[in-house]
Specification:
The complex is a heterodimer of chains A (67) and B (208). Chain A has 67 residues and is mainly α. Chain A is built from 1 helix and 2 strands; from the N terminus they run E-E-H. Chain A is elongated, with a radius of gyration of 23 Å. The radius of gyration of chain B is 27 Å and the shape is elongated. Classes of the chains: A mainly alpha (67), B mainly alpha (208). Strand 1 of chain A pairs antiparallel with strand 1 (7-8) of chain B.
Chain lengths: 67, 208
């Protein structure tokens, strides 16, 4: 019988109990995407947001040193 | 809230049960922790190097004068001053004076440059006339910034304790002794227009 994902029986998700085995090249691909694109992008976005926060603060409070 | 005993659960569950999502959220079945952390470590080192290289490139004069606004105006003016050519051959490049050294302030300055990108895209100073018209505003920004930081960028090279006052002209020596060494004033209070032309003084407000 085919059970659709997220079907809960007796308080337990029956579809989560038997995860499918991913293929090796799928995992390798996911690793590369994460390491080369996703995390670097998040890191740059984080640094950018950090700089933007300080720039905004300086625009309100005056340039650094005047606080 | 009653617990759902049977039936289909919400959107989040359905999204996270997609095989391509689980590929990212589940532990790896083919690769060891040692391999994954090594891979992450190597990628991290490469990223850090690339990030720093890009940041340093954005801190070069070549990058600054990549826009004609800087190349045709302030860069030309700098070449007529002592900060470009002098007997010791030490010279200042754009970021030496205009980009703070502390990391947080440097990143904040890099983000502030998005305003310069805006100005470039919309041609706010794309002619000499527009630049000269806006010069009082632009100069005032830098003077305010340097005054607040007590001329931090000047002091990256110039050090008051290292000044040989006896080698200075007498009026310079007495001014430095009375106002710089006492901490009463810093470089920018007196030294303006030392690397670029001064704005038209009549247009300035509160110029002392």
């Amino acid at each position: 019988m085919h059970v659709k994902a997220c079907t809960w029986i007796e308080g337990r998700d029956v579809t989560q109990a038997t995860p499918a085995q991913p293929r090796k090249w799928h995992e390798a691909f996911a690793f590369l995407i994460l390491a080369v694109f996703i995390w670097p992008f998040i890191a740059v976005a984080f640094v950018g947001a950090y700089g933007l926060a300080f720039w905004s603060y300086f625009m309100l409070a005056g340039p650094p040193g005047s606080q | 809230m009653a617990t759902l005993r049977e039936g289909r659960r919400g959107l989040w569950c359905r999204l996270t049960s997609k095989p391509w999502v689980q590929l990212f959220t589940r532990p790896s079945t083919h690769f060891s922790l040692a391999f994954l952390t090594l891979g992450g470590f190597i990628a991290g080192v490469a990223f850090w190097g690339a990030f720093n290289t890009a940041l340093e490139f954005a801190n070069t004069e070549q990058f600054c004068i990549g826009c004609h606004e800087m190349r045709d105006n302030v860069y030309q003016e700098l070449q007529k001053t002592v900060h470009w050519s002098n007997r010791t051959g030490v010279r200042a490049t754009c970021p030496d004076c205009h980009v703070p050294h502390p990391w947080t302030l440097k990143i904040a300055r890099k983000m502030a440059a998005s305003k310069e990108v805006w100005g470039h895209l919309f041609g706010l100073i794309n002619t000499r006339e527009k630049f000269v018209d806006l010069r009082p505003t632009l100069a005032q920004h830098e003077w305010d910034r340097m005054k607040a930081s007590r001329s931090a960028e000047c002091r990256n090279c110039h050090s008051a304790p290292s000044m040989a006052l006896d080698k200075q002209k007498s009026e310079a020596a007495s001014a430095h002794k009375a106002q710089l060494l006492t901490g009463e004033k810093t470089c920018i209070d007196c030294h303006r227009g030392i690397a670029h032309q001064l704005p038209n003084v009549e247009e300035l407000q509160g110029f002392d």
